[in-house]
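Below is a filled-in request sheet from our internal design queue. Each sheet records the structural input a requester submitted and the sequence that came back. We keep these sheets so that new team members can see what a complete request looks like end to end.

REQUESTER: design group, bay 2
PRIORITY: normal
MODE: inverse folding
CHAIN LENGTH: 236
BACKBONE (tokenized):
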């Protein structure tokens, strides 16, 4: 039953392209009309929006990775999520951005007016279901992240992080063993609630035990997906 629900979610999420396309068109279809969108390039570490800014669009990531974060009162940064190509940013917000949005590498985004989303929900059968599936996936990952932050060891946290990217790749129809990580070790640390040194030691441990292979600064190959899943679940 669980696998069936995951399959249904993957189908619904992928069906978003029926309305939003693959990013090559400047317009999206609404009933018998079209709403104009536009593409926005953004440089590495530039901000897409700032917390408390008024929200006028949602964004579809076409390339690169965008991180959402908050600054704590003592100056620490907590990264709350990473958005990869195909992901939608801002679906869950309510008119005002709740976090800062920063491109972690050079990125390209599709800017979609909120009015177009509202019209699609009311006029296009199935669009609301696809949006709900998108939110359900994000909620599930948020719950996993809360568990990871609160209860898991450093090894379990890093393994969970890598496994989540692998599963996302599978959901999007790409190679689940080829992981793209353009974020720095510091950004991963701010996401997992660890230090840079701990992140580096843990990745080295996964490498020396043969679970992963470092292909480049931003690319990791998973050699043993089953073992990675075991480590993520605490079977270390």
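RETURNED SEQUENCE:
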């Amino acid at each position: 039953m669980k696998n069936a629900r995951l399959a249904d979610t993957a189908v619904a999420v992928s069906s978003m392209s029926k309305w939003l396309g693959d990013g090559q068109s400047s317009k999206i279809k609404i009933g018998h009309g079209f709403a104009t969108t536009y593409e926005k390039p953004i440089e590495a570490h530039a901000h897409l929006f700032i917390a408390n800014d008024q929200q006028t669009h949602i964004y579809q990531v076409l390339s690169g990775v965008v991180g959402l974060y908050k600054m704590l009162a003592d100056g620490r940064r907590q990264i709350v999520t990473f958005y990869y190509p195909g992901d939608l940013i801002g679906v869950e917000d309510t008119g005002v951005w709740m976090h800062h949005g920063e491109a972690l590498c050079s990125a390209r985004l599709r800017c979609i007016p909120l009015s177009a989303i509202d019209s699609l929900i009311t006029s296009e059968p199935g669009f609301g279901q696809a949006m709900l599936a998108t939110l359900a996936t994000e909620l599930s990952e948020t719950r996993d992240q809360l568990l990871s932050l609160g209860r898991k060891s450093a090894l379990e946290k890093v393994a969970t992080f890598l496994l989540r990217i692998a599963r996302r790749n599978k959901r999007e129809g790409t190679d689940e063993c080829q992981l793209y990580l353009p974020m720095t070790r510091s950004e991963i640390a701010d996401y997992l609630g660890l230090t840079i040194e701990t992140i580096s030691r843990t990745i080295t441990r996964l490498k020396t035990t043969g679970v992963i292979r470092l292909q480049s600064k931003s690319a990791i190959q998973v050699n043993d997906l089953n073992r990675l899943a075991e480590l993520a679940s605490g079977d270390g």
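SHEET NOTES:
- The two ends are 28 Å apart (CA to CA).
- Residues 121 and 128 are 5 Å apart (CA to CA).
FILED BY: M.R.
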